[in-house]
# Entry
Amino acid sequence: MKRGGVRKIAGVLGSIAAFAAQWGGSSIYRPGQCILQFPPRIYLRPCASGYLSGNRKPPGGKRRKFLERSAAEGPTGPGDKFRKQLDMPSRARFHFSAAFDSFRNATMGRKAMKAESKERSACPPGTAGGRISRRGFLKGAALGAPLVLAASGGVGGATVVSTAQKKLAALGGPQAVPRGLRKGWPLITEEEKAAVMKVLERGVLWGTGAPETRALEKEWAEFIGTKHCIATNGGTAALHMGVAAAGIEPGDEVITCAYSWLATASCIVHHNGIPRFVDIQPRTFNIDPAKIEEKITPRTRAIIPVHLFGLPADMDEVKAIAKKHNLIVIEDACQSHGAMYKGKRAGNLADMAAFSLNATKNLPGGEGGLFNTNGDEYADRADALRMFNEIELNPHFRGRNFSEFGWNYRTQEFTAAFTRPRIKRLDAENAVRQANAAYLTKHLSQIKGVIPPYVPSDRTHVYHMYRIRLNAAGLGLSVDARTFRRKVQRALSAEGVPVGGWKAQPIPSQNLFRLKVGYGKGCPWSCPHSHREVVYLGEDYPETLKMLGDSLVMGSALYPPNGIELMKHYVNAFEKVFGDMDQLMRVSA
Ligand SMILES: Cc1ncc(COP(=O)(O)O)c(C=O)c1O
# Structure
């Protein structure tokens, strides 16, 4: 047989293999790249409009005309004619089309091949090196892996491969983020397993003086830099201990942030205090210090700023106001384990602090909490409250006459043992979150309509959550911010990006406050010690409402072991969603 004939047969067989492998694998098309397959017959490259085109004829020839037309219209090559006639699902249509083109090219003459190779070398810099060896091809085919080779690692400036690939997942297109890539949280290692087993073997399961609990308190106090740490059974318990230790009495007012988890405010009501809310600062999402003083009354006793999502609040400003009005400051640090503010850890920035150890947190212990303070008196009071206010423990005789309320906020040895090894890993794990967030911020800031989180230079963010804002008006869209956010949320979720809203209302809008349900019968607001009517209305917190209307949150997706590889896919998905407003507007809100 002639050499040309052998080549053609080899090419045809290769095409069939390519077709089969493509069918079996999920192809990842990287943006702005030449994508090359072996045998060197399918040669796909990005066109101006973002579609990949079969590319066989020398520039300037008839074929080029076709490419230009197809780039505008969206088809991927001559195989399109057939795939359109056959009513195949989009993904299958794409592969069929590519395989058809492959077959066609395999039968192409030597002259045309030369022209193709010439044009291949005209790929944009850094993208033409995407050749795949015959061995690589066969290996890929054997694994059923994608036969598309991304020539460069960059994702920014993504170009979607085909009409089918470009179609939003929410409208029936393929999902941008491969399924199963994201790893869940918390990551549990052999160290934690061994630590918990040790508790079982030791047989000491509880007690404020139990060895794991004591060791956890010592290690966390050292990590944060405070004199005391008291382990509790939740962040809410730790916050309540702070409120009680601050000496809050019925009717006393405590100022806090209008946006947080409910416990930030309900811990005040737990002690018959009256919460007074302050709107958020729109860039940091934390309490706006400029609006605190207008909420201070003669009954105000304390402020609870929250380091929301892992970013410390403006503590210098908050503390200056507190000092001026003689108020106690309790940090709600439940979301900010390890974050730094002007060189100090969150949790060591005020009179007292509370951390949560629930399983979603950067320092997860299953369930649990930690209370930190440098004040001996605060520590004594909080410690008493943790265990029924049993103040004078006598090892020989426990016959105290309890004179003040206390609770049972003790933790247990399993939580303490599980948490301790994680303290050693916390900074490293936060560094992964920070690297992931930095990658997202770098790329998302280039997408018109997306505003990544802001981090003032005097503090670090530990990204318990990564909150972005959306700017529909900036895109020239007439759709309202909320509808746009919902469309984006649906579109991104369908692409495999886990985005949500987190808490959908300001805390004062919750019925508990709005209707003053409280303990029933209007208590504690109706208590005679509560000196005046307090009205809670969501609309009094316009920045919070605005933020809720135009922002989205990503949580544990940024947590280790997830890394840049997953972030690249997320950026890809964002670029896909924001790359075609016509499609996005068709996504139901
Ligand atoms: C800001 C904030 N405060 C308080 C809490 C309460 O912590 P826990 O669930 O451990 O009681 C949480 C937990 O979700 C929180 O995120």
About this structure: The radius of gyration is 30 Å. Residues 3-166 form one domain.
